[in-house]
Amino acid sequence: MTVLSFLAIDPLLEGDLLWTPLLIVLMKVLVVFVVGLVATMLMVWFERKAIAGMQNRIGPNKAGPFGLLQTLADGIKLFFKEDLLPEKADKFVFRLAPYLSFVPAFLAFAIIPLGGDFRDGNGGFVTWFGETTRVQLADPPVGVLFALAISSIAVYGIMLAGWSSGSKYPLLGSVRASAQMVSYEASLGLSLAAVILVCGTLSTSGIVDAQSSIGSWNLVATGIVPFLIFLVSATAELNRPPFDLVEAEQELVGGFNTEYSSIRFALFFLAEFMNTITMSAFIVTLFFGGPQPITIGDTTLDIPLVPNGLEGTVWLLLKVIVFLYIYVWFRGTLPRFRYDQLMDLGWKFLIPASLGWFMLLAAQRLADDRGWDQWIVVPLSLAVIIVAFMMMQLAFRASDRNREAEGVQF
Amino acid sequence: MGYLGGFLVTVRQHGKRNRVTTEYSGGRMFRRGKKESRDEKIEKPERLHGRHVLNRYEDGMEKCIGCELCAGVCPAKCIYVRGKDNDPANPTSPGERFGFVYEINYLRCIHCDMCVEACPTEAITETKLFEFSFTNRRDAIYTKSELLVDDSGKPQHLPWEDWRPGEDLHTSGWMRATSPSGDADFEGVVAWSGELGYGVRAAEAEQSERDRH
Fold first, then answer.
1. Which residue of A47, A54, A328 to mutate against B (max B Cβ within 10 Å)?
2. Is-contact A167 A86, C-beta < 8 A?
3. Buried/exposed code over A227-246 (b: 16+ C-beta within 10 A; e: otherwise)
4. DSSP characters for A181-250?
5. CA of B30, closest CA in chain A: separation in Å?
6. Which residues contact A213 (CB under 8 A, 6 or more apart)?
7. Do A329 and B25 touch (CB under 8 A)?
8. Contact check, Cβ <8 Å, A58/B11
9. Taking CB atoms and an 8 Å cutoff, what residues of chain A touch B19?
10. N or C: which end of chain A has fewer CB within 10 A?
11. With an 8 Å Cβ cutoff, is A332 touching chain B?
12. Does A62 lie at the interface with B, CB-CB under 8 angstroms?
């Protein structure tokens, strides 16, 4: 009893403690961590293979079957490399920074519903060893906010890495990174607000639960625009091409991680790919029903021979792979943005557009509550948004002209 | 399609059989007798600058006379030569002196072929062998024992080199890349020097003819 209370397992000293919930939580932590690592490894392989296919190359094919173990080989190599610490670096922050970017990448994964039975009003609960639980490490009531908060903390990792390197290019890279990530966080949050408005909950499992068929997927329910904005902002938030100005090789050598080598570099690398996976899973959770099976009308596509509890995981995996491919596709297709183009897209287009769409959804909901005619309210709001957008464009043009008159060039 | 057309271009490349990659694994697969396509060497350009060889005359004499012109002209300062007087009773080279020490540091060599052009006796030429393998800086220095050709004019097959049939062809012949007088229009009339064991290589096709391919 005293030992248990010492370990804070039973803070209310009620006794009657069952070890199963604790073991289940520990098991979940382990599974999420290991799955995260293995998924990252496979993601690196997948990206290299897929992009090689797009560029008429072969990609890794020597280590293991189809080159699957290439990432493992690279990881082992990085482990055994010399760990360099620049003389001008701020030693403590330099050592801390990789963890600041690596830990949030895994933390964010904790709130993604990884499976479970969402059919027939089961709400994603499964029963393991007589214990009813979700296939999700944690389901805080503010899950979505948690994800946003964690993704902002990841900025610190990159910013401090560049700053503490005591070198010019990493500093420039990290300044770019912080500006970019802070800017796109705004449109990310605003397009997320549309989802929260439609679902009426901040909990990720609640959001999944609300999307029981294709018609009620948030993709459709929020009218596609928030999804597109979210996808673009997420790409920018992840610093992936075409928004990878943070590590623009032609301008910045390697960007914020130029001075890093060995396992510290591996941590950054891991975090980057882990974030890609987490963000894909997050998009699937928010807009595509997460582990929900695909339901059109009344017919539910069922994967034969797989029990319902496990089927959710399979669906999630399939949906996530689609988005991982889309990220690779972006990288294989689009050239990198110029920095002012990036800022223009973020501030002058994505933020106003997501804000406008959020207002539209709010108006539509208000009309719904008050019993106003939807067919008048929605077109009217759309018209107002379009007029406002055009006026904003006029203002931008005027400011461009003024700048030109002043002789400012950019 | 506008902006989105590019996405179709990339996704269409999947599964196309127009890969430019040739799978070369340093001869590991080739030696095990695996399929040729898994360890394939592409045809090398006619003027490829690879590892050097020190040539011999038909009678087995070394061509190198230890004049150090190659060392002097080397822009990377990777050649070290020391000459020594020939023993009159048992000469190593037909001249007065011979290359007693001849070392090339392949960590420095940029394969510019200046040494080949500078050599008055065509003693040093470049082969098309390109496999270099060393795990320390000492091993990167090739000495006479690695560079000298055998009596039939063939370069030595070093243990780490992946030789395929025909690999040792065209090792001792050389040609001038530019005209002797610096004439920019000079083309199509260059010929290769004779090679021990192989005779004279056919002259390259004229520029206009090569451009047609």
1. A54
2. yes
3. bbbbbbbbbbbbbbbbbbbb
4. HHHHHHHHHHHHHHHHHHH----HHHHHHT--SGGGSHHHHTTSHHHHHHHHHHHHHTT-TTS-GGG-HH
5. 15
6. A295, A296, A297
7. no
8. no
9. 56-58
10. C
11. yes
12. yes
Per-position b or e across A39-74, b if 16+ CB within 10 A of its CB:
bbbbbbbbbbbbbbbbeeebbbbeeeeebbbbbeeb
**How many other CB atoms are there within 10 angstroms of residue B109's CB atom?**
21
Beta carbons of A272 and A239 less than 8 angstroms apart: yes
Angstrom distance (rounded) from CA A60 to CA B35: 19
Measure the CA–CA gap between A188 and A226, rounded to whole angstroms. 9
CB contact (8 A) between residue B25 and residue A62? yes
- Please state the φ and ψ torsions of residue B41, each to the nearest 5 degrees: -110, 130
Cross-strand partners of B54: B124, B148
Q: Is A333 in contact with B18 (Cβ distance < 8 A)? A: no
What pLDDT, in 10s, does the model give residues A330-362?
Answer: 988 888 888 888 888 888 889 998 998 898 888
| Cα(A116)–Cα(A407) distance, integer angstroms | 61
Tens digit of each residue's pLDDT, chain B (213 residues): 677 888 888 888 887 777 778 888 777 777 777 666 677 888 887 778 888 999 888 888 888 898 999 999 999 999 999 988 988 888 888 888 998 899 999 999 999 888 988 888 888 988 888 888 888 899 999 999 889 988 877 888 888 888 888 777 777 777 655 555 666 665 555 566 777 766 777 766 666 666 665
Selected residue of A231, A322, A333 to mutate for chain B interface (largest B Cβ count, 10 A) = A333
- Judged by a CB distance cut-off of 8 A, whether residue B9 touches chain A is yes
Cβ pair B16:A56 closer than 8 A: yes
Confirm whether the ipTM is greater than 0.85: no
**Residues in chain B closer than 8 A to A58 (CB atoms):** 19, 21, 23
Residue of A nearest to B21 (CA): A57
Q: How far apart are CA A24 and CA A129, in angstroms?
A: 9
According to DSSP, residue A11 is labeled T
Tokens standing for residue B63: 């061509």
Contacts of B18 in chain A (CB under 8 A): 56
Q: Could you write out the three-class secondary structure of A71-129?
A: HHHHHHHHHCCCCCCCCCCCHHHHHHHHHHHHHHHHHHHCCCCCCCCCHHHCCCEEEEC
pTM of the entire predicted model: 0.78
Helix (H) or strand (E) holding A3: helix A2-6
Instruction: Report the length, in residues, of chain B.
Output: 213
**Hey, what are A347's tokens?**
């501030």
Q: By CA distance, what is A334's nearest residue in B?
A: B6
Q: What does the DSSP 8-state code read for residue B195?
A: B
Total residue count of chain A as it appears in this document: 410
| B26 in reach of chain A (CB within 8 A) | no
